[in-house]
């Protein structure tokens, strides 16, 4: 038999896990920002990396945070709705 749907607890757990990754991404951003600011490094390689970091790299991480936040919230909302519907069906 093919299953269609989700286990509400597992889906909520997935949502919380996704939202939890935001902290890890923030830590990566903070670590690189700090390391870059506190490293004596002058020259074109530094300038290129700093430009890439503040441009495409950091922007990609910020987008990933937004995606995890949105997807995590969606999973949590869907799990609550699924639990509500399953509870209504069980009556």
Task: Chart the SSEs and their pairings.
Blueprint (H helix, E strand, L loop, with lengths): L7 H30 L6 H47 L1
Tell me the span between the first and last alpha carbons. 24 Å
User: Per CATH, what is the topology?
Assistant: Helix Hairpins
Question: In percent, how much strand structure appears in the residues?
Answer: under 5%
Shape annotation: rod-shaped
Question: Mean pLDDT, rounded to whole units?
Answer: 93
The CATH C-level class name: Mainly Alpha
Instruction: Assign the structural class, choosing from mainly alpha, mainly beta, alpha/beta, alpha+beta, or little secondary structure.
Output: mainly alpha
The string of secondary-structure elements, in order, is: HH
Return the CATH architecture.
Answer: Orthogonal Bundle
Identify low-pLDDT runs.
none
Task: Report the oligomer.
Answer: single chain
Radius of gyration: 20 Å
Number of separate helices: 2
Q: Helicity range of the residues?
A: over 70%
Q: Mind summarizing the main beta sheet?
A: none
Number of separate domains: 1
Description:
The protein is mainly α and 91 residues long. The protein is built from two helices and no strands. The protein has helices at residues 8-37, 44-90. The longest helix has 47 residues, at 44-90.
Can you describe this structure in just a few lines?
The chain is an all-alpha fold and 91 residues long. It has helices spanning 8-37, 44-90.
């Amino acid at each position: 038999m093919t299953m269609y749907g989700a286990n509400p607890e597992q889906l909520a757990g997935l949502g919380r896990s996704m939202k939890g990754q935001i902290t890890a991404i923030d830590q990566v951003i903070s670590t690189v920002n700090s390391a870059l600011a506190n490293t004596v490094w002058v020259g074109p390689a530094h300038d290129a990396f700093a430009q890439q970091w503040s441009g495409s790299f950091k922007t990609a991480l910020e987008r990933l945070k937004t995606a995890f936040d949105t997807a995590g919230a969606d999973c949590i909302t869907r799990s609550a709705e699924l639990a509500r519907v399953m509870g209504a069906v069980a009556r």
